[in-house]
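We emphasize that the prediction below concerns an isolated chain of 165 residues; any contacts that depend on oligomerization or on bound cofactors are therefore not represented. The input was used exactly as deposited, without trimming of termini.
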Amino acid sequence: MIEHELVEAESAEDPKARLEREYNELLQELRSLIPGANVLLGFLLAVTFAEEFGTLDRTERYVYFVTLVSTAVAIVLFMAPAAHHRLRFREGDKDNILRKGNREAIAGTVASSLAFTGVLFLVTERIFATPEAVVVSIVFFAFTAWRWWSLALLRALRERRRARV
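Result of the prediction step, given as a token string:
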């Protein structure tokens, strides 16, 4: 199907069916994000029991803590739409749940990107030194921002400009 036919098919879709489809799409996306955050959280919790954990310097401890909290926040944000849905089941609130869930999923990706960057900093700092870890972390975060958000936001901006013409 070409893009025009997709738009026509979606506009003919029943509003309730559209909400169900969009909510299911959101849940599918969250199902791909949650395992990564869970594995990272498990790793972060497990390393606290390693002997080397006690040798972390002050900077490493702060980075570790921010990374741990970012991971936990990501998991909470990724799971929030399902919790909201369960609490508001059959209350006719799916549109609100979907809008909030979209924002929570985006915020969860921000928290995840901070967590991934923190882990990369900690590992790089242990292998090399702090200057290298800072450079690698900045480059990695920039790459993540470009791939996860910038491309989509730039496309949306281009589409809005085309719509105005």
